[in-house]
Amino acid sequence: MALNLTNAQRAEILTQALPYIQKYYQKIVVIKYGGNAMINEELKQQVMEDIVLLSLIGVKVVLVHGGGPEITEQLQKIGKQSSFVDGLRVTDKETAEVVQMVLAGKINKSLVNLLEIKGGKAMGISGLDGHMIHAIPKDERLGFVGKITGVNVVPITDLLEHGYIPVVSTIGCDDDGNVYNINADTAAAFIAGAMQAERLISMTDIAGILRDKDDPSSLIPCIDLKEAEALFEDGTISGGMIPKVECCIDAIHKGVKKVIIMDGRVPHALLIETLTDEGAGTMVTKDKDDER
To answer: Which range marks the domain in which residue 122 is found?
Structure first.
């Protein structure tokens, strides 16, 4: 919906964004995008526009994506039922091949294509390229689900230096060439940590960390590591939020300055988070004294 703004009002909006543009100029922001936040096509277009805008104003954006729903859909097409243990997909050899095909192929290249259409300069890579994500089996019950043992971010930094938006699909490999399905939140945390990113932004299908999971208005705007520990203990952080928040904490420990969990279904949530006072979702920080 177009807003009836005067040229003066448009100029005012742009000048209000200036301090934030200066704050993020030439800084690395890793965006984890995937799962249910990718399903709505119109929203996906807006997310790509936001990423291109951030890139054009000098933010070094790295897009790390998953694609669980599309993997499930593809497996169903070949008559294969998905099963999960502790929220992770049980991955046999055939499933690992489907994961590679969907993530490194269809989803990765469609996101690159969208970014290019929106005026960005993007390049798709997977965790196999340059052996970027090195992994070993995480749990014998899960098959080819990988536990990350190291990341080589040189391919990503090379692309950033040449003005590209790196689009990273989260599959990994071991020394024998086995391909592993890697949790996208975990991969994003490792990559952001290795790059000492200014921000890791996790776009998901919930508003953030809620005091009451059934009440969106109970959003907690900011927590530090001590408060996160307390929220785990009292059960506020439960179910599917546990691995997401654990990844946020891991990223902070690895050197990421601040991590945001936000609702990727909110139009232009990325710009609200990075270029306004309001922010979006829940910020996880090492120390609460840090300001948004």
So the answer is: 24-285
Instruction: Confirm whether 19 is domain-assigned.
Output: no
Residue-wise pLDDT for 213-251, tens only, equals 788 888 999 999 999 988 988 888 887 788 888 899 999
Q: pLDDT grade, residue 292 (50/70/90)?
A: very low
Range with the lowest mean pLDDT among 30-34, 48-52, 278-282? 278-282
Segment 82-94 mean pLDDT: 87
Q: Please check whether residue 256 lies inside any domain of the structure.
A: yes
Contact between residue 165 and residue 123 where contact means Cβ atoms under 8 Å apart: yes
Whether 11 maps to a domain, the answer reads no
Cβ proximity of 25 and 57 under 8 Å: yes
Residue 204 belongs to domain with CATH number: 3.40.1160.10
Question: What would you report as the CA-atom Rg of the chain, rounded to the nearest whole angstrom?
Answer: 19
| Residue 15 covered by a domain | no
- The DSSP annotation for 108-146 comes to HHHHHHHHHHTT--EEEEETTGGG-EEEEES-GGGBSBE
Half-sphere exposure of 203 (CA within 13 A, CB side): 32
Based on the structure, what is the number of domains in the chain? 1
For 199-217, what is each residue's pLDDT tens digit? 999 998 888 898 887 888 8
Helix axes 68-77, 93-100, angle to 10 degrees: 120
Residues 148-159 as b/e (b if ≥16 CB within 10 A, e otherwise) read beebebebbbeb
